[in-house]
Design goal:
Layout lengths: L1 H30 L20 E7 L3 H12 L8 E7 L6 H11 L4 E5 L7 H12 L7 E5 L4 E2 L3 H6 L7 E10 L6 H24 L9 E5 H6 L11 H11 L3 E12 L5 H21 L14 H30 L1 H29 L1 H12 L4 H11 L1 H12 L12 H24 L5 H13 L1 H17 L78
Parallel strand pairs: 1-2, 1-4, 2-3, 6-8
Antiparallel strand pairs: 4-7, 5-8, 6-7
């Protein structure tokens, strides 16, 4: 019996250690971004401007399409080498009229492909567009974006310069949260994107293997798309990750371009964000299953530790958090001394992760940081933040607590009591439940919207993402139907109606570790240069975007 209890104790301790190690893995990956100047790929880039078709999937996106198209037309890019094809997925709003007006303003540069039957998912919409774009040899590159993404003027040229290297098959841009005036939710998303894109994708350049190019800003060479049979995978809810992996499995490199900056409208409520993150979480789990024979096996890009460790750390952390909380609770009642050690290990790990990610995130993107610094600091939640503060500077926290409690005749001692240790153990899991309840009580307007925001600050945005991750595991476990839930856009964003005109230039946001752009790229005028893909040498104005597919055409 004693041996069984010892084994149980070891297993419970291992769960806590595992949950503590995953944030440390993520911290190391974030720190690698500091070495991006040595792996930015600029040494193999050159000012090239291939003939590019921008592919935009759209379903009832009339509220946001206008600024998106105008920002593309205002790119610092040769007009004769840039065209836009919007794939209309059976929209029922003013999308057709809006695109007809855009085509009239920009003759021969804006096209519309209409799908009579929609609702089959983003990948199916993109495949319809790719079939048209690749039907002739005009396009040398294809930029896939979302309908609400507004590009900064020099972003496309910053991205295409990497295609001068024939080994590069795809280039990811930097999608930033652009909702205006925004909500607490969008500001949390904004700082999350700094960590997940501006930092993590710089680190991916350093490691030399990319996990995912953003679905809203991915540039592909024609050669890469043809190597992928001209199609986007439809077997998962994470088509952008599959495309990234397949690009690398086919021998092409994927790079991140931090100067390929663009702005997107993100979910403004917890309910809409929950739906989005369920889709992303389930997609990641489907990726694990799809490539189950290739993880951590040498000889393939996804077999490398630099790919698998961060991917599994992010994917498995939501599952390990509640398990670690349960383990700490059981250990508390069976062996308090051991439980106290494990509890300290867990919170020290989380404290280090918070310090590293907060410091790097605030430093790498001053533009977003000015709007979202409060959300960066409170990312783990106010309760967890208090525990982290005590973990890092216990003397300061105890002194402050005693000053606050003095008027009530109470005080706390320097040592952690059993009651406080129990609370810290339980909170690890309870935070996820409170974050979920914040979504449940939230309403679009009125007091319940504010209540949801208050609960989110208390529980933490990080625990909210973990709660969505747990729900993703449960949905996949019971093989729930795979649906693409459309996120309704409002158009209230940077570059949208009521804001500055599309084509603005964002403030200087070159991050520490980046080289300054080389002479002639991306803002100095240069002569368009062929990249060596199919169609090179043909007249840039020879064909329409897709021959015979202008606005209003229904195949």
């Amino acid at each position: 019996m004693v041996i069984v209890l010892d084994i149980v104790q070891v297993v419970l301790g291992a769960l806590v250690v595992a949950a503590a190690c995953l944030p440390l893995i993520c911290s190391v990956f974030v720190v690698l971004a500091a070495f991006h100047r040595f792996a930015s790929h600029l040494d193999r880039a050159a000012p090239v401007e291939p003939r590019t078709v921008v592919l935009v999937p759209a379903y009832n996106e009339a509220a946001v399409l206008g600024p998106t198209i105008e920002a593309l037309m205002a790119q610092e890019y040769p007009p004769e080498a840039l065209r836009v094809l919007v794939v209309d997925d059976a929209s029922t709003d003013d999308t057709e009229r809006l695109l007809a007006e855009a085509a009239a303003r920009h003759p021969g540069r804006v096209g519309r492909l209409h799908r009579e039957v929609g609702g089959q998912g983003k990948a199916a919409v993109l495949n319809a567009g790719l079939a048209c774009v690749l039907a002739d040899d005009w396009a040398q590159a294809v930029l896939i974006i979302d309908a609400d993404v507004v590009f900064d003027p020099g972003s496309l040229r910053a991205m295409t310069r990497h295609l001068a290297d024939p080994e590069v098959g795809a280039v990811g841009g930097y999608v930033r949260e652009g909702s205006r005036p925004g909500t607490s939710v969008t500001r949390f998303v904004g700082i999350e994107y700094v960590t997940a894109q501006a930092l993590a994708r710089r680190s991916a350049n350093v490691v030399g293997v990319a996990v995912c190019v953003p679905g809203g800003a991915q540039l592909h060479s024609r050669a890469n798309l043809e190597a992928l049979d001209g199609r986007i995978d439809t077997s998962t809810l994470a088509e952008d990750t599959v495309t990234t992996i397949e690009t690398q499995l086919h021998g092409h490199r994927v790079v991140f371009e931090p100067h390929g900056s663009c702005w997107a409208e993100e979910p403004a409520t917890l309910r809409s964000l929950w739906k989005q993150r369920l889709r992303w979480g389930r997609g990641n789990l489907q990726i694990i299953s799809k490539y189950r024979g290739k993880w951590f096996r040498p000889g393939t890009p996804i077999g490398r530790l630099g790919f698998g460790l961060p991917f599994f750390a992010v994917t498995l952390l939501p599952l390990l958090i509640p398990l670690a909380s349960t383990a700490l609770l059981v250990l508390y009642f069976t062996d308090y001394g051991y439980a106290a050690q494990m509890l300290r290990v867990f919170w020290i790990s989380n404290a280090l992760f918070w310090v590293v990610t907060t410091a790097f995130s605030l430093a790498v993107d001053p533009v977003v940081s000015r709007r979202s610094w409060r959300q960066a600091v409170t990312f783990p939640g106010l309760v967890s933040l208090a525990i982290i503060a005590y973990t890092l500077v216990p003397g300061v926290v105890v002194d402050l607590a005693n000053r606050l409690l003095a008027p009530f005749g109470d005080s706390v001692g320097p040592a952690v009591t059993h009651r406080e240790a129990l609370a810290a153990s339980i909170w690890v899991g309870v935070a996820l439940a409170v974050a979920y309840l914040a979504k449940a009580v939230e309403r679009p307007e009125g007091p319940r919207r504010r209540l949801g925001a208050v609960m989110l600050y208390i529980a933490g945005y990080g625990p909210f993402l973990c709660a969505a991750g747990v729900a993703s595991f449960l949905l996949e476990a019971r093989r729930a139907p795979r649906r693409w839930d459309h996120t309704v856009k409002t158009g209230r964003m940077r570059g949208g109606p009521g804001d500055r005109a599309p084509g603005y230039r964002a403030p200087g946001d070159r991050a520490p570790g980046d080289r300054a752009p080389r002479d002639g790229a991306p803002s100095d005028p240069v002569r368009p240069t062929a990249v060596g893909h199919a169609g090179a040498g043909r007249s840039a104005a020879a064909d329409p975007v897709v021959r015979g597919h202008g606005p209003g055409h229904r195949p």
